[in-house]
Structures are given as structure tokens and as C-alpha cells.
Specification:
By secondary structure, the protein is α+β, with helices and mostly antiparallel strands. About 30% of the residues lie in helices and about 25% in strands.
Amino acid sequence: MINYKERINEKITISGFAEKVRNLQWVQFIVLRNEGQRIQITIEKSDEKNKEMVEIVNNLTNESTITVTGTIKENEKVKMGGMELIPDSITVTSASAPELPINITNKDAAAIDTRMDNRFIDLRNDVNFHIFKIQTEFVRAMREYLYKEDFTEIHTPKLIGAASESGSEVFVVDYFGDKAYLAQSPQFYKQMAIAAGYERVFEVAPCFRAENSNTNRHATEFTSFDLEFANINSYEDVMAVEEELLVAGLTAVKEKYGDLIKELYGVEVVVPKTPFPRIDLQDLYKELSERYGYKVPDHDIGDMNAEAEKLTSKYAMDVYGHEFIFVTGFSKTKRAFYHMRKDDVPQGYDLIWKGTEITTGAQREHRYDVLEKQANEKGLGEDIKFYKDFFKYGCPPHGGFALGIDRMTMLLLGLPSLKETMFLFRGPNRITP
């Protein structure tokens, strides 16, 4: 971004969108937008040297792209930071059709699905545009934390020969006459890296879930931030790393975009204190019942649902004044077969933030014979033979977790749906643009 105040009386060249064109009797104004930043371009019609530019502006449509060369001047009457650009030349690099399909100054002027149909225009709105600037900083800071902790970044296949979690909720594709699947997660391959001798690995990549779900927090394709690391003593070690990772990400976001987030989204970015609160699921059930009169439905016993997650966040704020809380002690019937168990209880957790689960993490089962037994319990046999083979020749104790980047961004900015925080949303009823 250009610091115009540091460039007063300098000649610059800048390109961007002609967000607004005003053609008055004696003067023309263009508001030029570039990467969410704006500057006013002022053309005096009476100046003979401006004749060619005046004619260009006479025919200029809003949202056309232009390149302008001129001098930065201070002008206290200009609302946009008291700066304006006095141009020497204007070139129209691409002319916009006169009527836009949606209003870009008011993102709520069109229904969400109309906006998604015109996402290439919708993203020009300031609120939408800055989502991905903020998301980039969040991911950058978490990546940087892992690099400093000596994690290796890997890139695992998304076309795989067996379902990565179970036989359901997978997209099946034709693979030269055979069946292949779109990966639900990089879980198996993260663990393969551990078995191969990489002590710490991570990946940021797409995942696919064939869930016919139309909630505000589910998508058929999403971006997952996955990590796995070895030589742990318990899932407490995994929780500790997740705490530090989130602190690193939120600290960077607050430092760079905290004021903007408050201005555009009305949200105060809170950097959480560590350690995060922790509670066993059975104790949580008791607290939710006694404090809020909530009883978990029978079909959700051993797990949580959306209502329980909301109340769990309320409990965390009421008791600990904390936005995050770990919940442990889930039923083995509700957890993946590769979670290690102790006294028949999965050694893992869910992390709840702002009323929503953002992570299921765990210590993994690394002993071949136990893993095979647990896979058989879930009815997973030959389909995952390749995965079980990873553990035949020695594998250190390890664990990990994954964060949904789109969901995290939705919660961070207080937005109502993943449709807002995914560059292009994919759901049961949306496959284009």
C-alpha cells in the first residue's frame, strides 16, 4: 500500500478501479480504489493541458480499470486523508459495462446467493475484500510459528485409493476405470510422514466432504490447516501446541488488522491467555444442566451438538472469562478408530471457540495390533490396509489436529456463514462459479 502522506509533491503512477466518477461543471473527480485503498483524482476542466483527460473521463464508467500518472498534493478539503492526485495522464486499461449486477458499496443489498453468483464483483466490497487479507495474516503467522518450531511442510495427495475417515461422506471419482476418492483429510498421510521419521509435519490444503448439509458452517470443500508431531507423552502435549499456535495467529492479526476489524466488522480481536480451560464431557453435561437447564439428547450422549457447543462457550466465559475451552472424554463410538484409548476412553479433545467446535485433536494409536483391532471395530478392513501397514515397522507416539481456516475466519470476524469467508463457496447446491 502507498503511504500518500510520505509522497507529497512526488510524481507517482498508480493503477486501480474507478470506483466513483463525478463530472461537474468545472471539475472532474475520480475515486481510484487499489487494494482497498482510495485516493481522489482531481482534473480541472479549464486547464488546456487536461483536454484529453477530460474527454476520457466524460466516457469513463464506474469500476473501469485505469492507470494514472500524476503528483500527490495535500488538500484539507478532501475527505480521503486530505490527499489528492493531480494527473498528467489517464489511461483506461479496461472499460466496465455501465450497470453492475450487484451493489458493491452495500454488500447486503443483494441476497447471499446472488452475491455468490457474482463473487468476482462481490469481493470488491470493502468488508468482503479484507476478509482474505486478514485470513492471509492469520495463516501466515501460524505457518511462521510452525516453521520456527521446526515443522516440515508437506503436500499430500487429494486423489486417494481409500476413504480417509470411513466409507461414508466421500466423493467418488472415476480413476481410469477404477474408483478413487477425494480426500476427506490428510490424516493418513500425516501419520505416514511420522512413520517415515519426520518428527513434525503440517499442511494447508483443501479437503472434501460429501455431506448434504446446508448449515452456515459446513461446506463440501474447505481449507484445512493440519499438523501432526511425534514423541508426545499425551494429548495434553497436542493441546499445548494448539494453544501456542492460536496465540501466534491471533496476536499477528490483532497487531496488523485489529483496528480495521473493529471498524469493518465490529469485533474486538482477543488474544487468549494460556492455558485454555479444560473440562471433561461428563462434567460439562452436569454444568450445562445445572447452570442452563440443558440436557443433551440421548442420540448425542458421548458427543456434543451445536446447542451444547454454544452453551459451552457461554460456560467458558461465565466461569473463566475465556473465549476458548477444551472438552475431553468423548465416547469411542463418536471418535475415529485411530484415536488412542486409555481405559477405553479416546485420548483426544474438541476445542470450542465462540460457540463452535474448531478442532478435533488427539493422541493417535501408533501400535499396529491395537490399531488393527480398533479399525475392525469400525468395520474398516482391507480398504485401509495400506494405512495400517505404516505402523508395522515401528512408529513413535504422536498426535495432531486440524483447523478449518474458513470456519476460523468466520468466527474471528463474527460473520454469519462460510459463504462469506470462503473465496468461492462449495456446498450441496453450489458448484459454480
